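Handoff note, outgoing to incoming analyst
You'll be picking up this chain. Sequence as last confirmed:
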Amino acid sequence: MSALRKKFGDDYQVVTTSSSGSGFNQGPPEKKKKRQRFVDKNGRCNVQHGNLGGETSRYLSDLFTTLVDLKWRWNLFIFILTYTVAWLFMASMWWVIAYIRGDLHRTHDDKYTPCVANVYNFPSAFLFFIETEATIGYGYRYITDKCPEGIILFLFQSILGSIVDAFLIGCMFIKMSQPKKRAETLMFSEHAVISMRDGKLTLMFRVGNLRNSHMVSAQIRCKLLKSRQTPEGEFLPLDQLELDVGFSTGADQLFLVSPLTICHVIDTKSPFYELSQRSMQTEQFEIVVILEGIVETTGMTCQARTSYTEDEVLWGHRFFPVISLEEGFFKVDYSQFHATFEVPTPPYSVKEAEEALLLSSPLLAPSLCNSGGGGGGGGGGDRNSSLDGLEALEDSDSTAKLPTKLQKMTGGGCRDGLPRKLLRMSSTTSEMTYSLGDLPMKLQRISSVPGVSDDKLLLGKASKIGTEPMSKSVADLPPKLQRLAGGGRMDGHLPPKLRKMNSDRFT
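Most recent structure output, in case you need it:
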């Protein structure tokens, strides 16, 4: 344990369970009651089709695919039954011909030429058919030239035997060569995790390939299955939403030589935008993972599937590294494949983090409102600006990314929708005129933004921007920001963008 803390830091805590026999495998401390899954962990879809009615005839129209899709025990039963029935039927036909011609009663007449030599009962007729079908040809039983009906039956037997062999042997070969078993050597982590990566809240899970043969053109996709109700009142029990795992950047195309961690960044476009650690206790969803690729040895397409329910997604965890550099090669330790450890992770959702940041900046909303160049307001409110508000103006998509509540606040008539506290702050701020030459470069660029009139950034020499409006003491900040500005503030739990904005505000 001391070695692990020395390697990963004192903040990381290893969580172990006895699942899957791994020393570092972990699971949630208290699991909820297991519910019905749509896709099992082994990839089997838990769906049964019933009340088909007349639609069952469609299965007979594609009999070959139907036989291939059957289980092995039914395939073997049909294989044996088909050959047995065909053999008995053809042997009966040879026996019928011998019976009609009277060959069964004149077996010891040397002057009589039978249809088939040495066929005098049903077992001998059956042996003749097997010798002919299997091309064994012992030479004891044979067709004579005095039996035209026997020649016709022999031709029919050859054609029917070839059809049966091609159909059944081909069916068995296709079933044996299916790449479904190849999917069993593709591993998925037992749990998915949510933690910070590159300053963004990210959903992650791990995939691996146990064989040395590669999966050519491997591609991974994720679907979120969740029930919802449309605005029209329609209830969708299994609504499928796409989870972006790198489709826009090409990260979904995998070079699956060693275990890879698949990431889904939780942002405004993600279905998990409003998901927090607390809401996961009541949410019900299922993440279906589909990995497709071409088997290098056979050239056939293989698909492996698994799923993660809400109780299999661990908040504030990260996967252990499994790759180490040895002498001349890289070694993969699959005993750590499912292992995770705890890391500091914000317990709130991305939406809550953005709203908390925006609401904690009291001058941000007025500055955004004034930058719209809308109708009149107080002179002090028009001239009141801050670096946070101006930084928001530089982002052309800032208003579009704001929550609905804040979009109303930043609209054309946003002063009417501002809270009373913000209205008092914007109205009581002393009027100031700034010289454009004395403004910082960022403010000078803002003056050229369409919608920001020149009279809002007057070239006044009487007053200039000092350090006092931009360097408020901690005592003047709101209580929430005072906690963040203190010695034990939680900047390490915030994404880099939020930490940067907080540091700019405090400096």
